[in-house]
Amino acid sequence: xxxxxxxxxxxxxxxxxxxxxxxxxxxxxxxxxxxxxxxxxxxxxxxxxxxxxxxxxxxxxxxxxxxxxxxxxxxxxxxxxxxxxxxxxxxxxxxxxxxxxxxxxxxxxxxxxxxxxxxxxxxxxxxxxxxxxxxxxxxxxxxxxxxxxxxxxxxxxxxxxxxxxxxxxxxxxxxxxxxxxxxxxxxxxxxxxxxxxxxxxxxxxxxxxxxxxxxxxxxxxxxxxxxxxxxxxxxxxxxxxxxxxxxxxxxxxxxxxxxxxxxxxxxxxxxxxxxxxxxxxxxxxxxxxxxxxxxxxxxxxxxxxxxxxxxxxxxxxxxxxxxxxxxxxxxxxxxxxxxxxxxxxxxxxxxxxxxxxxxx
Length: 360
Ligand code: NAD
Ligand code: UDP
Prior knowledge:
Elements: E1 2-6, H1 11-22, E2 26-31, H2 38-48, E3 53-56, H3 62-71, E4 74-79, H4 86-91, H5 93-113, E5 118-124, H6 147-165, E6 170-176, E7 178-180, H7 199-207, E8 214-217, E9 229-230, E10 232-234, H8 235-251, E11 254-260, E12 266-267, H9 268-279, E13 285-288, H10 303-309, H11 317-330, E14 349-352, E15 358-359
Parallel strand pairs: 1-2, 1-4, 2-3, 4-5, 5-6, 6-11, 7-10, 8-13
Antiparallel strand pairs: 3-14, 9-12, 14-15
Helix pairs in contact: 1-2, 1-8, 3-5, 5-6, 7-9, 7-11, 9-11
Uridine-5'-diphosphate is lined by residues 178, 197-199, 202, 214-217, 228, 230, 268, 291, 294.
């Protein structure tokens, strides 16, 4: 019985695959490698000493995805696959709605067809919109303010309707706060395309000398030092949260939403200082205007995940920065420079992480 991991080659997916394999789960990955490299999965194999099947399939390709269900005994699904850049979603809303919503429709149809009704879905704190009411609990109003966040909000609604139509479903909606950090091995981490939008990859690229200086968006917020405050969570803690969510969907029917964060807020300046201390590198910065749509403060109420999932984040800000730095320093150009991406992503190919042979 396998766990199907959609988007398993991506940042959070690859770290979750490590944790799943470490506790003995059989894993099947589906990814179209649009925003990831096969190399990340090869390294998941290296870290765990385990092999697993990987399909280069787009979720929009129903036929390709059906092959995954027919060739494997899938018991549950962790659904990471999706586009995730807020700015891009504002410029290309149709693409975002099509990819994230249609991908989820195709997946759920096939889950239904194959009698697989246990699902852990990657939602996001962006569903809460720009609220400054902190800490944010799961029953705070849902009011996403950009197309990306709306895809998460709409998918949450669709999954609730799915459960209403058939109470056999068991669905966990995980609302991530700000995932950062990397696996302690330094082998896998976040590998953004182009210039990073998010704070941590930006800081680490300044520290490694790829970017000159960080622009800090706003210095006049009503926060401890005037800069924006967020709830940063180590990606390995986040990955472990998925294992707890998976246990939850085994044991309980229904739809449940959980915040995954630390419950603590750090400002941009605090993150810069923590990163300088962890890396021993200077991070130059300059203050610029506020970024449109940014909340001043955002951090989670994490009591529901603690009480109902038995999960709490264990790693602090220093470990987050040290692990980010180890990954960045060892892989200044991400996965690409170390090994070429081995496959084309225009056509469905099946690969095995055992040997990474590619065949049509
Ligand atoms: P990522 O881009 O690294 O991983 C997503 C993976 O999905 C990529 O490997 C991509 O190639 C794949 N993918 C996208 N569309 C696909 C499709 N149609 N078919 C098959 N594969 C497809 O992103 P991540 O940071 O690992 O995020 C994983 C999930 O968590 C996403 O759904 C994202 O929206 C959500 N999330 C991420 C963050 C964050 O800050 N990283 C925060 C909140 C929520
Ligand atoms: N931020 C910044 N400069 C950057 C990127 C981000 O000052 O180049 C700030 C941003 O305004 C916010 C915090 O860092 O206060 C976290 O931003 P990120 O985009 O990583 O996460 P999000 O805003 O989506 O929570």
